[in-house]
Design goal:
Number of strands: 12
Oligomer: single chain
Shape: globular
Radius of gyration: 19 Å
Order of helices and strands: HEHHEEEEEHEHEEEEEHHH
CATH architecture: 4-Layer Sandwich
Strand order of the largest sheet: 5-6-7-8-11-12
Strand content: 15-25%
Distance between the termini: 62 Å
CATH class: Alpha Beta
Helix content: 25-40%
Largest sheet: 6 strands, mixed
């Protein structure tokens, strides 16, 4: 259990002026996609265990919001979840990872709470977890619903890059840059470093603004490190209204692909044939 380590990180960031601390995927337990190992230490938001309780206390004491990954227990089910705790220490949102990666499918149930957006100190904050980034419709839906910041607890491993550089940008970061720019949102990714079991993590936590510019990171690939980044949410509206009639949300062709993803387009010819 990582109650002491993560609480210390929250306290350190709060002392440095942070108002929102984002922790990695499964930060409460370490990334262990093993049901047998996780069942005894999984926690419930109804009856928080030692790590969630520590995060709630740290948030309340330091008056800082916290988003972090944990193994959530609900009945007989386990979920790869992320909790959002506001600066009063209240749990205000739970996100359950929609897209399970590799061995996670043998351990967790797929998320069933959709794509919630929480009000964190007046800012609309959505949450994704790691592999969810490979499904761009998830971030687009949250952006369309008004999200200004997307927090992404991650546990990045190799496999997506043809060759992983020793330092600097990796393919996951390139994807974050593109999505932040296309959706005009801030994206903050907090990644894991080091080894857990047979998993080697890539680190390189990063924050990107709505113009697709890196504003923090990539951080260390192999050492625990944190960074404070200033977010000005007026940049979201500035990025969405760049002049010259460029408004990627207003210019969407919902007559072709529908107001929400998953809509089945029916051409005028098909409509006429059915009538």
């Amino acid at each position: 259990m990582n109650a002491v380590t993560t609480s210390a990180a929250i306290e350190r960031c709060a002392k440095e002026g942070s108002t929102l601390v984002v922790l990695p995927e499964l930060a409460a337990t370490g990334y262990i996609p093993d049901r047998g190992a996780l069942e005894p230490i999984a926690e419930s938001v109804v009856d928080p265990g030692p790590v969630l309780s520590a995060w709630v206390e740290a948030a309340k004491t330091r008056q800082v919001a916290v988003i972090g990954g944990f193994a959530e227990r609900e009945g007989d089910n386990l979920y790869n979840s992320a909790v959002t705790i506001d600066a009063s220490g209240k749990i205000i949102s739970i996100y359950r990872k929609l897209h399970l990666f590799g061995r996670e499918r043998e351990c967790f149930e797929p998320g069933d709470l959709g794509l919630p957006i929480a009000n964190v100190s007046g800012v609309a904050v959505g949450v994704l977890v790691c592999y969810d980034l490979r499904f761009p419709e998830a971030m687009r839906i949250m952006a369309l619903r008004g999200a200004e910041v997307i927090a992404v607890p991650t546990a990045w491993v190799s496999g997506f890059d043809k060759k992983v550089p020793a330092t600097g940008r990796i393919g996951q970061i390139d994807g974050v840059i593109v999505q932040a720019n296309l959706n005009q949102v801030f994206v903050v990714c907090a990644d894991t470093v080091g080894f857990v079991s047979d998993n080697a993590f890539l680190g390189r936590s990063v924050a990107v603004n709505p113009f697709g510019e890196i504003i923090a990171g990539p951080l260390s690939p192999d050492q625990e490190e944190s960074s404070i980044v200033e977010i000005d949410v007026t940049e979201v509206s500035a990025a969405r209204q760049r002049g010259l009639g460029i408004d990627p949300f207003a210019n969407r062709r919902t007559d072709v692909y529908g107001a929400e993803l998953g809509y089945k387009y029916v051409s005028p010819r098909e409509k006429k044939e059915k009538s």
